[in-house]
Amino acid sequence: DAAPESVAVQIKEVTFAYDGQAQNALDGISLTVPAGQHVAILGRTGCGKSTLLQLLTRAWDPRLGEILFNDTALTDFSEPALRKAISVVPQRVHLFSATLRDNLLLASPNASDSELGAMLEQVGLQKLLEGDGLNEWLGEGGRQLSGGELRRLAVARALLHDAPLMLLDEPTEGLDATTESQILDLLAQVMKNKTVLMVTHRLRGLANFDQIIVMDNGHIIEQGSHAEL
Ligand code: ATP
Ligand code: MG
């Protein structure tokens, strides 16, 4: 179950409804993302952006249609192989009741303490290393993190995992302008050789994406390069 070196994504006529929901969250979505391409996903709240990213992680399977990575159906991947292929910054970041170290090691159990420290510094979370450092207990019964700290922790997790496909759901939501540009610069460096789908509300920086899709009500309503749109 080695990680593929690169991931091309094909989404074919995917329709999905959450259990108990009459309306489809996604309705006939088709999207082709060649390996190494960067796609920005825009659209107003509730249009299905996060659902689309979550289907790519197999949190749920489509009701209709299929998703392929490198011409292999997602359903044919083993769970470990999928995990190795994908780095995720989810919209809602979950903090485990565990040490800072274990919260970072989730998807990359082999990272050393010095690698973890360097990564915390890169995402501007070096302050967390004061006091008990990586042994500090987080979550329930321990230290809580602010919304912005949580997002940066999630970015650190995703970068430590270093997979060929990155799924980023508003990675800089709620960050101040300085921290946002720090994180975006960091992401820009690591995104270079990866396939990226990024949900964003920022219109600035869209020219850096190869493809932009605009969703509405479970559909893709606009699609093209920055120049075309
Ligand atoms: P936002 O910009 O606010 O994050 P979004 O585009 O990411 O919105 P989704 O979270 O994908 O939107 O939600 C799409 C639709 O599915 C919405 O109508 C939402 O209410 C519904 N939905 C999302 N998650 C669930 C769930 N777990 N169970 C039932 N319905 C859900
Ligand atoms: Mg969302």
From TrEMBL:
Keywords: ATP-binding, Membrane, Nucleotide-binding, Transmembrane, Transmembrane helix. Residues 9-229 form the ABC transporter domain. The keyword Membrane applies. One of its GO terms (molecular function) is ATP binding. It is found in: Cell membrane. The keyword Nucleotide-binding applies. Its main location: membrane. It comes from the Bacteria. This is Cysteine/glutathione ABC transporter ATP-binding protein/permease CydC. It comes from Lelliottia aquatilis. The chain holds residues 331 to 559 of 573 of the full protein.
